Prior knowledge:
By secondary structure, the chain is mostly beta strands. It contains 1 helix and 14 strands, in the order αββββββββββββββ. A 5-stranded antiparallel β-sheet has the order 6-5-4-1-7, with no helix packed on it. A 5-stranded antiparallel β-sheet has the order 13-12-11-8-14, with no helix packed on it. Strand 4 and strand 5 form a beta hairpin. About 30% of the residues are buried.
Amino acid sequence: MTLAETVKGPVTGLPMPRYVSLKASEGNVRRGPSLTHRVDWVFKHRDMPLRITAEHGHWRRVEDREGVGGWLHYSLLSGKRTVIVEQDMLELRAKPTLASPVNAQLELGVVARLGECDPEWCRLSAQGYRGWAKKDVLWGVKPGELRD
């Protein structure tokens, strides 16, 4: 176990960094953890995966897949896990193996709901399609993360 895996958030006691998603259809990203701080960004994609890197009171410091971010109020975040597809025409397979039939293909940048994960594959659902995809082409899940 590395040091990064043992770091706990001072407010929630949950592991950090960790992934969440944007609950709201819009979220003001502030320079600091209060309403008095300037809005630097506005995230506008409900369910977008975000990585929490710090906690302060009711505020969470988040970043997107490009490392852009700031402070969001915790009420705008959800524990519902999503990922962003980082490979164009990503094949969703019926089972977590390359020999398995392809159920669908997802375009680069699609946001998908994250299901269970084994060491190399994750089950996704997006736009009415379901299947397994290689974990290394998804942003929003840690490389060694296992999910039931």
